[in-house]
Write a structure and sequence with these properties.
The chain is built from two helices and ten strands. It is α+β, with helices and mostly antiparallel strands. Bound molecules: iron/sulfur cluster.
Amino acid sequence: MERNLTCILCPRGCTLNVTVDGDNVFVTGNSCPRGRYYGEEEVVAPKRTVTSIVRVSNRDDVMVSVKTETPVAKADIFTVMEEIRKASVTAPVRVGDVILTDVCGSNIIATKNID
Ligand code: SF4
């Protein structure tokens, strides 16, 4: 199997060619080692950082932006979104506060201050 991907780890956006041959994965086109890792991971077990918003229960019509602290498996994104959708938080909230713990292997953290 062969795939062409764009590395999304920095603005340079290198075009990667990833070839899977049995258990071996070969990456070319990367300008740095991070691109090789990205290419390998993207064909073997793709992950994404999920961003969303959570309701602030003690403020009218206020939401706080959140994200997964670490990328989660692409296959788990809908589960993560469902857990975030059910969540609420009480202000004050600070950037980096953990809103939910261990959702598909990642904490959900605030990315905005709410006084
Ligand atoms: S391979 Fe390296 S230089 Fe190229 S886009 Fe990815 S992170 Fe940036």
